Amino acid sequence: MIKPIMRDIFFLNQKSEPATEADKQIAIDLLDTLKANEAGCVGMAANMIGAKKRIIAVNMGMFNIAMFNPKIVKRTGAYETEEGCLSLDGVRGCRRYQEIEVEYQDMNFKKKKEKYSGWTAQIIQHEIDHCDGILI
User: Fold this and answer.
1) Which residues contact 91 (CB under 8 A, 6 or more apart)?
2) Which one is predicted more confidently, 50 or 136?
3) Per residue in 43-63, pLDDT tens?
4) Is the dihedral of CA 113, 55, 136, 35 positive or negative?
5) Does 127 qualify as catalytic in the annotation?
6) Which residues contact 16 (CB under 8 A, 6 or more apart)?
7) Annotated catalytic residue: which of 17, 21, 103, 127?
8) Helix H segments across 1-136?
9) Given this structure, which CATH class describes domain 9-131?
């Protein structure tokens, strides 16, 4: 189900709780909402649809994926950039990393460890920041 975008800064600044298998519907709603906003959005975190859970959805080019409890375990190649967010007006400066390694659980709660670089890495970092209550 497509959900409205959360714009309450107080809510967005709170850390999200670990996700469980009982939260799969939140991930489905997150993927639906990302798809509905694909013209101006490439990633979303569950708190952006009002669910304080560690779930993100990321556009991988031809498809979108959900990640439960994502955690960056390695990062290299720091750089400064500017980003926008559906939950905020305008763009803001931030620090990102060119390459990251992420541990997460997929929709079947199978543990994964993947490396990402470039644009995809930047999206994942932005969304994990949302889970940690960090806004650009």
Assistant:
1) 82, 83, 84, 136
2) 50
3) 999 999 999 999 999 999 899
4) positive
5) yes
6) 45, 46, 47, 52, 53, 54, 55, 130, 131, 132, 133
7) 127
8) 9-12, 24-36, 118-131
9) alpha beta
